[in-house]
Amino acid sequence: MIILEELFSTVAEFRKYSPYLESNVSFQDLNSSALSAKKQISIILSKEVYDEVVGKAGEPKEALCSAMANLTLAKQMIFDIISRRKNEIDIYKHEQEAMRRAYTDNYFNAMDTLIQLLSDGKDVSEKWKETRYCKMLSALHIKTADEFDSLYPIDMSYLFFFRTIPLQKEALDDGLNSYFERADKSEEVIAMLQRCLAKQTVAIALRRFDILEFPPIIRNLFEDSKPMRYGTQEQQRMLNLAASLADEVKNSLTDIDLILTSGSGGSVDTETSFNRPDDKIYLMA
């Protein structure tokens, strides 16, 4: 089965959605990369929603076409580079990296549009509501990309928000849920906890995701002006930011503990609040 023929009738139509494609390329040449791209997108959308979008003309299908075209070419790049080198055609590493990032950016933008249409617009379907990611939202404290963006900037990326839904649940299960239960409708504490949850979710993502999977506002923190990039250095910088965010969350939770203790007991125990009636105070002249 030729995967791309589900969405594109001809290579010329496919080329409309991609910034660059050689004229002698066929769908057969791209099929293995397209198969991988479809699997990646179907994991997010579900197979049922993917098939539903493919079968109905409209904005969602246009966004899916763009996502499939650009993700397919991003995955195909390594095979094209090997083929060109065999033909003694040189491509500089920074050019390869720039092309890959351009394809990936186009893919993310298309998926942001598609998920936004499925989530907020008239194209919401029952099949979309039944996907595992949508079902998980009911148990979370940050339920929309807009809400997440207000707590920690993610360029309003619907795709990044949906990719981090399981990570948000992990952060809650690892201890933050108990804080929300103790907050007991305190708007001040809940607001602080939501910011902690957003930071902790991003921290987990920094340890799990490739840098290309982040929205530009986060990804730009790691982009060097140099033409050469070093993977080990980039990974260490990601881990350093993750550790920094985790420390911020830890410090905020310490403050929240004090607020909750004060609210329930009327006083906050600190290292300087141990005065008792039988304490003797000496004044030195």
Blueprint of the fold:
Elements: H1 11-15, H2 27-45, H3 47-54, H4 59-86, H5 93-120, H6 126-129, H7 132-137, H8 145-151, H9 158-163, H10 165-183, H11 187-208, H12 216-219, H13 231-265
Helix pairs in contact: 2-3, 2-4, 4-5, 10-11, 11-13
Please describe what this structure looks like.
With 285 residues, the chain is mostly helical. 67% of the residues lie in helices and 0% in strands. The protein has 13 helices and no strands. About 4% of the residues have low confidence.
Q: What helical percentage do the residues reach?
A: 55-70%
- 3D shape: globular
Number of helices: 13
Low-confidence stretches: 265-274
Keywords for this entry:
285 residues, mainly alpha
Summarize the structure.
By secondary structure, this protein is mostly helical.
